[in-house]
Amino acid sequence: MEYRKSNKFEGVGYDIRGPLLKEAQRLEASGHKILKLNIGNTKPFGFDAPDEIRHDVAQNLVDAEGYADSKGIFPARKAIMQVCQTKGFTNLDIDNVILTNGVSEGIRKVCDALLNRGDEILLPSPDYPLWTAAVKFAGGKPVHYLCDEQSGWLPDIGDLCEKITAKTKGIVIIPFNNPTGAVYPRDILKRIVQEAQERKLIIFSDEIYDKILYDGAEAVSIASLADDVLFVTFNGLSKAYRLPGYRAGWVVLSGDVSSAKDFKEGLSMLSDMSLGCNVPGQLAIQTALGGYQSIYDLTKKGGRLYEQREIGYQMLTKIEGITCVKPLSALYFFPKIDVAKFDIKSDEKFLLDFLREKHVLLVPGKGFNWKQPDHFRIVFLPHSDDMIDALTRLADFLSTYRQK
C-alpha cells in the first residue's frame, strides 16, 4: 500500500523553499558553493539581534521551562497592545492579543479559525505565498487581486472591487510589501477600508516589515483608520529585530471586535490545543518593543540595508532587459525581465539555468502567485561585495542567455 499526502496540498506551493532550493542543495553536496538569495533569513548575512534582547532572554530563561498562558505571557501581550495604541488602533483589549510561533502560525490559525469551505479571501498578486496556502488548507478559496507595477505595485482598487462576491469574507493586504517593496499610502488604505465598510468584510494586514522603510516612507497601520471594521493585524520580531529563529509573532484583533466573539473563541481554542507558543521567544518581545529601535540605523542613508539596496538597485537597472521598481520597504527586489528578449517561457527554468551555471539561488515570480514568467525575487541582505558578485554573475549570464 502507498501512503500519499493529503489532497489538501493540491495547488499549494512554496517556491521560496521549493524545487530550486533542492537543486541548490544537490549542487552543494557536489562541492559547489551556492550564494542563497532566496529567503529573508537575517542571521546568515551577519545581521545580529540587539544585545539587550539576548541578555534579557538569557536572564529570564529559567522562567521559560513551563507552559505559559496559551495566548502568551502578560508582559509581552501588554507591550504589543501599548505599541498598537501608539499606532492608533481602536477598541484594543489585551484579551485580543494572541502570541504565535511567528507570523506564519498566526496566519494559519486565523484561517483555520475563520474559514468554512468555499469562503473567499481576497489576496494580492504578487503575494507572500503562505497566505494562499493557508487559505486553501483551511478550505477557503484564494482570489487574487492585481497590484499594479506601473503605480509602484499598489493594489488595483478597481480589480479588487470587481472580485468581491457574496462569498468574500475578507481582504488581505501586505502594506509593507514582500516581494515588491511597496508601501501603501494612506489614501489607498482608506479606499480599502471603505470597501470593507460597505461590504462588511474583515481586513487582514500583514505588517511584519512596518519598521523596515526607506526614503522617508510613512508607516500607516490600516487598523488606525476606522473603528467599524474588524481588523486582524499580524506582526513579530523576525525581521526588524533580526530574530527569525525565535519564532515570536502575534495577532491583534481591533476595530469592530464585537462582531468577532465566536471567531475569537475559535482562535482561543486553537491556542489552547497547541498549549501556546514557545516561551523563550515571548521573553524577547517586551525588551524588543520597548528598547532602542536599531533597525532605523540600518535603513537610514549610510545604514547597511540602505546602502545594499542602493548598490543592488543601481546594478540591476543597468542590466539590459531588466527593470525594477525601487523598493521602499522590506528586504527584496522584484525585478521584471524582458521575456521576449531572452525567449523566456518559464521563470523557474530561467532561474534553474542561472543556478546551475552561476551558482546563485533566487525565487521565480510564480512562487508569489504572479502568473506571468517575467519576474523574480532577489534578497538584498548580503554584504555589498556579495551583492555585487551576485548581480555581476546575473549580468554575465544574461549577456548570452536564450531559453531553450
Can you describe what's shown?
There is one protein chain. The protein is globular and about 60 Å long. 37% of the residues lie in helices and 16% in strands. It folds into 2 domains: 7-48 and 296-398, Alpha-Beta Complex (Aspartate Aminotransferase, domain 1), CATH 3.90.1150.10; 51-290, Aspartate Aminotransferase, domain 2 (3-Layer(aba) Sandwich), CATH 3.40.640. The protein has helices spanning 19-29, 51-59, 74-87, 102-114, 129-137, 157-162, 186-199, 261-273, 279-283, 285-290, 295-299, 304-316, 339-342, 347-358, 384-398; strands spanning 35-36, 97-101, 120-125, 141-148, 154-155, 168-173, 202-206, 230-236, 248-255, 322-323, 332-333, 336-337, 360-361, 363-364, 376-379. The longest helix has 15 residues, at 384-398. The protein has 15 helices and 15 strands. With 404 residues, it is α/β, with parallel strands linked by helices. The protein has an 8-stranded mixed β-sheet with strand order 2-9-8-7-6-3-4-5, with helices on both faces. A 3-stranded antiparallel β-sheet has the order 11-15-14, with helices on one face. Helix 1 packs parallel to helix 14 (347-358) and helix 4 runs parallel beside helix 5 (129-137). Helix 5 links the parallel strand 3 (120-125) and strand 4 (141-148).
